[in-house]
Design goal:
By secondary structure, this protein is mostly helical. It has 2 domains: 68 residues, Winged helix-like DNA-binding domain superfamily/Winged helix DNA-binding domain (Arc Repressor Mutant, subunit A); 156 residues, Four Helix Bundle (Hemerythrin (Met), subunit A) (Up-down Bundle), CATH 1.20.120. The protein is built from 11 helices and 2 strands. A two-stranded antiparallel sheet has the order 1-2.
Length: 251
């Protein structure tokens, strides 16, 4: 029989934490949506039966969690801000720096995530999702022959591919890697004023082929093609940045 140590009492949540938890659940459930203002203080105090200091402490908890935005001096009150993957991107980048991770580590993670996302998008995606990727290819990539813009445009295509797959977990991880990915690609291309025509055309053909496979709902072929694409992309970046660490790019 397991015994509970008398020296380790269980701490009861503070009232402010309970209020914050309830408001947080309302945001999760969609009862409070992104951009909504919280009800005014008297209304919330009456609803929860708490004092003004307790309510304000609860709001500070939500603010620290990046769930509400408080503008000092504003009369409109706290505003709901539903965060995206960027909320964990910086802490994740710091942890990668502390662990001594290299760009190769980041590329391996991307190569594991994106082909699976391509298969999911091919199997379960809708025409609207494929049209969005097509629009990125047609509208953004052709205008991004200059190296820095090319890095940003292609990274956007990769990120949206994962997000459109419909898998929230993969999307969150892709969002975490997005900033690092864009920066290291930009660094790899920084010595070039523009992308070589042959490389540019190869990327465009690969993107076009992927979109065709997605529209054909051929998940197996889409995954296989994108795995080859990611392997080739990784080799190109690592050739320019063979041993660079994440912190060298994030600084």
């Amino acid at each position: 029989m397991t015994t509970v140590s008398a020296t380790a009492p269980v701490r009861s949540p503070k009232t402010a934490e309970l209020v914050a938890r309830t408001l947080r659940q309302m945001i999760v459930d969609g009862k409070l949506k992104d951009g909504d203002f919280l009800p005014n203080e008297p209304e919330l105090m009456a609803h929860f039966g708490v004092s003004r200091p307790t309510l304000r402490e609860a709001v500070r908890v939500l603010e620290s969690q990046r769930l509400v935005e408080v503008r000092r001096g504003s009369r409109t009150g706290p505003r709901v801000r539903v965060p995206g993957p960027e909320i964990v991107a910086r802490p994740a980048g710091l942890l990668l720096e502390l662990s001594g991770a290299t760009i190769a580590d980041v590329l391996v993670a991307r190569s594991a995530i994106e082909p699976v996302a391509a298969r999911l998008l091919a199997n379960n995606g809708k025409a609207k999702a494929y049209d969005e990727l097509e629009q990125i290819l047609v509208d953004d990539i052709p205008t991004s022959v200059e190296a820095p813009q090319f890095a940003a445009a292609t990274t956007h295509f990769h990120r949206r591919l994962v997000e459109l797959s419909g898998n929230a977990t993969l999307s969150m991880i892709a969002g975490m890697l997005h900033e690092i990915t864009e920066r290291h690609t930009a660094v790899a291309l920084s010595r070039k004023r523009s992308v070589p025509k042959a490389d540019y055309e190869k990327v465009v053909r690969s993107y076009r082929h992927l979109i065709n496979l997605l529209r054909a709902h051929d998940g197996e072929a889409a995954e296989a093609h994108w795995r080859i694409h990611m392997d080739n992309s990784s080799k190109a970046v690592l050739k320019a940045l063979p041993t660079i660490k994440v912190r060298d790019v994030m600084d």
